[in-house]
Amino acid sequence: MKVGVLVVAYNAESTLTWVLDRIPDETRRELTEILIQDDFSSDNTEAVARAYNAFDDIPITVVRHARNLGYGGNQKAGYQYAMDHGWDVVVLLHGDGQYAPERIGEMIAPLVSGEADAVFGSRMLERGAALRGNMPVYKFLGNKVLTSAQNWLAGAQLSEWHSGYRAYRVDVLRELPLWANSDGFDFDTEIILQFIGAGKRIVEIPTPTFYGDEICHVEGVAYARAIMADTMRYRLGQAGFGRGKTGGQAEPYSYKPSPNSSHAILLGMVDDTSPQRILDVGCGPAWVADELRRRGHYVVGVDGVAYDGVQDRVDEFYQADLEAGLPEGIDGEFDLVIAGDIIEHVRWPDRLMDQLAARLANDGEMLASVPNFAHWYPRARVALGLFDYDQRGILDRTHLRHFTRRSFRRLVKESSLELVELRYSGLPLGAVGLSGLGPRIMQGVDRRLVASWPTMFAYQLIGRLRLATENLADD
Q: Least crowded by CB within 10 Å, which of 98, 215, 266, 448?
């Protein structure tokens, strides 16, 4: 395998030679190349790097950036070089000597053997080692506190999140959206979160701590704020909020039976006194349909994607792009049509609603749910000039239309239907993975807010619709 070392250097003229000299001979024989990237230093770092000639068995490439790219930006450029030059493994080494070049062999071993996708050198694995290496007590305590908080938020068990001693498989780096990451010091946190979110294997090895007279370029409070914000974004991203740069939701919508969810409200509005013929449009994996079948109803499901197991949860399944309308082959009328969280996904919701209304029996009903764009969350995003799409929720990036209570009522009226009941769901706190007393209190408060001011606090609108009386007369 082609193993390269990326040395990120900034004003490192006094330490760079010392760092390179410490790379063991046996390790050097495993290396393909050493890339030294001078991030527009104000000292003679570049000259020192170019003058270094102690190694005659391995090429050393020196790059000086035309401007300061930042700690994260310097890494991005180095990883791009590794990709472009066919490296299989890249080791990140700091030019200031904080991390031990003597451990490079141990860093690359799990990657070469295929046991890991990333290896981190941790100063916290050996009890007391960090303090013996002169790590300041306030940094030690900060490291411990921040690592514990990040482990809790990200569902990880790392001994340290804040070591800059890293080694990666280059093919895995190629899969990640590295260029969307920060150019600052929180780049290291973002890349950990991307590895965790992608289910990649991370191995930690103990590494000694070196704190000397080097100048620290990290502003502690700003760094802590940035990395905690990144980790919180990851936690929210795992629930579908945000752009998903570090944590994303690739799985289809899950079944949400909690009392305040749209699924529970929809199911509660279904009449179970006698079996019904039900059309579930945009059924997804068909969790709602599965529950309705368990209750004795006959369910026909339609969706643009045939999710695993969907045909086992419905009596009939049709895969179709609802932009083109209902697919051929669906026969007869239905006692109930369910359009749960689907109307907002089509360009012409009025056409789809007309088609669905036409499939209703005269005494049939339609249950439809849409996200409430007048909810405080999108309102605040717009008011603050921060409007953007999330992976899921009200600002789901696949939503083509947005609805408020007024526009939803207008759509219903223009579709030869009438709205006979309107219910509201609150914040999906369960989808974020929050549990315990605090979230239960928040859920109770949110429920009261929804009841008192639904247009501001309702997360979704769930309507019971019937054919308008005048249309029944026409029939």
A: 215
